[in-house]
Structures are given as C-alpha cells and as structure tokens.
Amino acid sequence: MPDCTEQIYALWDKLANYPIGDGDEALEHLLGSLCSIFGAHNALWSVVVRLPSPAVGDALNGWRPLYVRLLRPLPTMAASVQEQFDTLWSPSIDLSQILAVAGEEPFRTQLLFEALPPEWFDGPHYQRHYLDVGHADSMSMRCAINADVRVHLFIFRSTESPRFSSADKKPFGLALRGLRWFYRQQLLSHGLLIANAPLTATERKVLLGLLEGRAEKVIAANLGQSPNTTHIHVKSIYAKFGVHNRAALTSLWLGRLPEAR
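Given the sequence above, the corresponding structure tokens read:
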C-alpha cells in the first residue's frame, strides 16, 4: 500500500484535540479513519476484561468482552456480534475466539489469514460471521491496559477487496501503538477501568460535563434534569470511582492508574 505516515500523524493530532466530553465522536473518528487509511469497510472496538474466578478449564482463561462498539452497526453485523458474544458462555467456543485472547503480549497486531489455519476458512464460523455479513478478511489490534483489561480493535475488508498483508500490518501497528492514552480515556469515560461498576448512560453524560468543568446547575439544564437529580448522579459517580470531589475525579485522567483492579 502507498505510504500513509502523514495520514497517521494527522489522525494522532486530531484525536489529541478532541475534548474529553467528545469521547464517542473521537472513537468514531478513530475507527472511520482506520477504515479510510487501510481500505476497510467496517470496524469493531471491544473492551475485554478478565473474570476474577473463571471456571476450571475455561478456554478463554476468563477473558470476556464487556463493551462492544461497531462503526457501522448494520443489522446483519450486529446480529453476528451478538451471536458470537452469546457463544462465549457455551461449550462451542471457536478457535478464532480462543486465539484472540491467547498470550500475554502488551501489544499485538494480527492478520486473520496469518493467525488461523487454512481449514478454518472452510468452517461454519468463517461462513457465518465473515462471508454471510460481507466480510472476507480482518486485521486486528490488542492492547493491554492493565493485567485484567484489554482493548481489541478489528477492521474488516469486504469480499471484493484484496486480503490484508504485511504491508498493511506494519503501519496499522504504528497507527495504534502510541494511542494507549486514548484507550485509557475511553475506558475511564465509560467507568470500565477503575469504577466499582459501569456507569449508566445518564451518569456518563453527567461525568463528561464534570470533566469539562461545568457547574452542576449547568449540567442539569443541559440534560433537562433538576439540580437535585444531577447532584444524586454526581454522588453516585464519585462513589463508583472511589473519590470524594471533582478534583480527585479529574486526577484520574491525569494520574497513573493501578496495575489491576
């Protein structure tokens, strides 16, 4: 593929300029830019966590997705993702799902046709979750945020496009290797990294308002809530993150996270 270094630099600059409150738009820009740079037609972002007490003999060693975001959530693709999610708690776990979580590398990129044996492409999983939804190939990234939390990212090419190659893999890794700060911000904004429980949709809106420095009354007005309701959400957010005020909450975006929760 042609040199895409300047596009990657532009992507980094753009992501760095997004306010914390525009995290969803920033993630959409990342996924859309990767598709544009690498000739893909869809992308998937997933936060994967290690269960504290996996079952004996668990093929995935306790790793399960907690949050999934599709760039273009087409009905066929969304249904495929849900089916794959459901099978992770059944005995019929596919080899591709096992290999996706295998190993302890802090950062890894992988080509689908590099990772799976030739016979896998004649099997039902490739037919159902690739060919049936218009995919022929994928390239993936996995980044460890700490010992128990990882980010997975996939981009997909259609059946009309050539396969991804090593010429794509190297710049793909370059584009994503230095964005650990971004992944960390994404997880914090959803309460998925160090909160005692994931944030509700409303709590997340309140959280982003707090991080933007808005007063509680302004947040309440923007969300169409009473100030008292907003204050209850603020107290819940503080409790989930284990802090007592806005300054301590904000410091989580600036300070060092614990290695594991």
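The two ends are 41 Å apart (CA to CA). Try to locate this feature in the token string yourself.
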